[in-house]
From TrEMBL:
It is an enzyme of class 2 (transferase). The chain crosses the membrane at residues 6-29. Coiled coil: none annotated. It comes from the Bacteria. This is histidine kinase. PROSITE patterns: HIS_KIN. SMART domains: HATPase_c, HisKA. CDD domains: HATPase, HisKA. Residues 563-777 form the Histidine kinase domain. It comes from Sphingomonas aurea.
Length: 777
């Protein structure tokens, strides 16, 4: 039994051992597999670490630093650093301040368990390293694991992206500012086409308070009833995927304006838009259209021919003178002929210049369309003697404007003018007068041969166009008085500047005398003329001497006549006195025949006394008038009474008409009475017995009039013209006062001394009428 039990026990032990071996084998096989897996993981991890862009190092709590060789190479160290302070090694490794910051970060991580991130750059290297530290949880001493990333490329990219972000931010700010400051309304719509953003110009256009208030209220710039509403363009732009442009009216600041509205679809599905105020542009276009129409209307009324070609070189406008000038039919113009065809039509009408190579000539004229700035001008000489001035002006739109001016008449006038100028030049050079033309600046411009000969100057001197001061100094020595030469510049200045004509006289050393003058010309120049008056000067001197002699003789004659008159009056007074004594019977009674002789003596004495008084009056010439207030009617009556004896002797029908309007005048009463008396005696001398004589006086508020008329034989035209001449008796009157002719001259002398006028009207067989007109004062 024991053996069996022992065997069982041994078997059991063996079984346990076998089981333990199996378990051990299983555990060994599993541990081997895990070791292989661990080795594989380690190899993979080592490979990852070798190829990883990051490397790890441990910072112990006691300040020790564990780092791989790769990190030493990254930090630019020759060997791994044992401490954080060892990361700085002179000119290699980190800068001291960066190492100090890393040490501070590690201490903070040890104490507070807070991680850190810091980017450093080793000295002398362009490498950028990011150090990310965190406290380890498996280390017994709480080591800080610091992962180091080579972020050189990502740092540069980040810097680049940061710069790009800054640039884009600046651009966005600038664009936002530009949109905000834009003078035209701008807006942005979201996906639902509602307003999301508007600028200040939009706010002002819709009279909003600010942009947010406009967006919140959805204030639209365009009225809702205009062409389907303000969203029509935005929807069409989003559907078509291209900008949509519309011209719509809008009410801005209370006035109706035309806007060009542009809606632009965006890639995000939203729509942006802006509006341009084209009201002024539309008005400008309308004004330009009206101006073009007015310009064409004006061109159609010009006398010059005008033709306008468009950019396609077809005729778009021509006026009536163009059609008449070139014999262009209206139907041809309606066809819109091309430029070359128009020239051909002109040639067919024989209205182009004669040219040998017409195609080449036409090609040259075609270049007018692309000509340089400014007009091209030509002169065309057409068959038949017509001269045309052609002006070709290229237009900004590529067209051409042609102007044809008929200058035939101007050419003919120019030819006639040239001929006239040649004639004038020849006349100018051959005039007897010395002529010189001085310009406004005082320089001598023109002169004739006589001018040079008078002054005796060289042609070379005159050809230099000397100034008037220089010319005056040159010729001063040729004058009797050299200082008189200064008068020439004064006269030229007066004619050119003051536009006044002045003259004078000058004497030369050779005895010649000249009369000169400076005459202003229409072109601002001065014409200096000199006329030789030597002969007339001599004749004038002779006449002056003769006039002085005649004046002296007249004075002697007047004095002689006055003395003689006074001498004659003395014996005449004695004769008259003795005759009156005889007539009065002082010498006893005279026979009848002797009595008639005495009366004849008295009449002759009276008549002779009157003649002597008249002669004295003529010699006095109306001097010594005594001005008083004269009653003209009373004076006329006294004169009529003085001639009554003669009236009665000749049995004359004498009528006196003195109107109240005759009134009073200022003058010498005695002389006025003598005027009337002389007129009456002059009429009596020509009247036959039983003739008729009239004395009439009237007047107005300013003048008085005296009329003496008779029905005598009258005077012929020649005698009437000489009636007031001294001592000129009318023909057919050999005796009496009329024969001596002193009455009417004395009457005129006294009337003119009173400021009046006297006139005589007479015809043979019709009598004579004398009218005296006297002023009141």
């Amino acid at each position: 039994m024991l053996g069996t039990g022992a065997t069982i026990a041994v078997g059991a032990v063996l079984l346990v051992l076998v089981l333990l071996g199996v378990v051990a084998l299983f555990v060994g096989l599993r541990a081997r597999g895990e070791a292989v897996a661990t080795a594989r993981d380690n190899a993979r991890l080592h490979a990852l670490l070798r190829t990883s862009p990051a490397a790890a190092m441990l910072a112990r709590g006691d300040g020790r630093l564990e780092m791989p060789d790769m990190l030493a190479d990254w930090f630019g160290l020759s060997e791994p650093a044992a401490t954080i302070g060892g990361l700085t090694n002179g000119d290699t490794g980190l800068r001291a301040d960066d190492a100090a910051l890393i040490g501070h970060d590690v201490d903070t991580a040890h104490r507070a368990g807070r991680g850190f991130n810091r980017v450093v750059r080793p000295q002398g290297s362009s490498r950028a390293l990011m150090m990310c530290g965190t406290r380890g949880i498996d280390e017994p001493r709480s080591a800080v694991v610091i992962w180091v990333f080579d972020v050189t490329d990502s740092s540069d990219e980040r810097d680049r992206l940061a710069g790009e972000v800054a640039r884009l931010g600046d651009a966005y700010d600038a664009l936002t500012g530009l949109i905000e400051a834009a003078p035209l309304p701008m807006w942005y719509r979201g996906h639902d086409l509602k307003l999301m953003m508007v600028n200040a110009a939009y706010v002002d256009a819709v009279d909003g308070r600010d942009a947010s208030e406009v967006v919140a209220r959805g204030l639209e710039l365009i009225d809702g009833f205009e062409r389907g509403g303000p969203l029509t363009g935005a929807m069409a732009a989003r559907e078509k995927g291209q900008p949509i442009e519309q011209v719509l009216p809008a009410t801005i600041s209370g006035s109706r304006r035309m806007l060009r509205v542009i809606d632009v679809p965006l890639s995000t599905g939203s729509v942006a838009g802006f509006a341009v105020d084209i009201e002024d542009l539309e008005q400008a276009r309308s004004g330009a259209k009206r101006f073009a129409e007015a310009q064409r209307g004006m061109l159609d009324r010009l006398s010059a021919g005008v033709a306008q070609f468009g950019a396609d070189r077809t005729l778009v406008f021509s006026n009536q003178p163009f059609s008449r000038l070139f014999a262009i039919r209206p139907e041809w113009l309606a066809e819109g002929m091309e430029f070359d065809r128009v020239l051909e039509r002109m040639r067919e009408s024989n209205r182009l210049p004669e040219v040998r190579d017409f195609p080449g000539w036409k090609a040259e004229r075609r270049n007018w369309f692309v000509g340089a700035e400014g007009a091209t001008e030509e002169s065309w000489h057409l068959p038949g003697g017509t001269h045309l001035r052609v002006v070709a002006q290229s237009l900004p739109d590529g067209g051409l404007l042609l102007i044809f001016e008929d200058r035939t008449e101007q050419v003919q006038l120019a030819s006639a003018r040239d001929t006239l100028l040649r004639v004038r030049t020849a006349t100018f050079d051959n005039l007897f007068e010395a002529l010189g033309v001085f310009a406004a600046d005082g320089r001598l411009q023109l002169w004739n041969n006589r001018f040079r000969a008078v002054w005796g100057v060289d042609e070379t001197f005159l050809a230099g166009h000397p100034r008037v001061d220089t010319f005056a100094a040159e010729i001063a020595g040729k004058l009797v008085t050299p200082n008189r030469a200064a008068l020439i510049p004064d006269l030229v200045r007066a004619a050119t500047m003051e536009r006044q004509q002045r003259g004078g006289r000058v004497a030369l050393n050779d005895g010649r005398h000249f009369e000169f003058a400076a005459v202003p010309l229409p072109d601002g120049n001065a014409l200096f003329t000199m006329l030789d008056i030597t002969d007339s000067r001599r004749a004038e001197q002779a006449l002056r001497e003769r006039a002085d002699a005649l004046e002296d003789a007249d004075k002697l004659k007047t004095q002689f006549v006055a003395n003689m008159s006074y001498e004659l009056k003395t014996p005449l007074t004695s004769i008259g006195g003795f005759a009156e004594m005889l007539h009065g019977g002082y010498a006893g009674d005279l026979p009848e025949q002797a009595q008639s002789y005495v009366e004849a003596i008295l009449d002759s004495v009276e008549r002779l006394g009157l003649l002597i008084d008249d002669v004295l009056d003529l010699t006095q010439g109306g001097e010594g008038l005594e001005r008083t207030d004269v009653d003209l009617a009373m004076v006329a009556r006294e004169a009529a009474s003085a001639v009554q004896p003669a009236i009665r002797r000749h049995r004359i029908d004498f009528a006196v008409e003195l109107a109240r309007s005759a009134g009073r005048v200022q003058g010498d009463a005695r002389r006025l009475r003598e005027v009337i008396e002389h007129l009456l005696r002059n009429a009596l001398a020509s009247l036959p017995p039983s003739g008729r004589l009239l004395l009439h006086a009237d007047g107005t508020a300013t003048r008085a009039r005296i009329i003496v008329s008779d029905d005598g034989p009258g005077l012929d035209q020649e005698s009437a013209a000489r009636a007031f001449d001294r001592f000129a008796a009318p023909q057919g009157q050999p005796g009496g006062e009329r024969a001596l002719g002193t009455g009417l001259p004395l009457a005129r002398q006294f009337v003119e001394a009173h400021g009046g006028t006297i006139g005589l009207v007479s015809e043979p067989g019709q009598g004579t009428l004398v009218t005296v007109d006297l002023p009141r004062r």
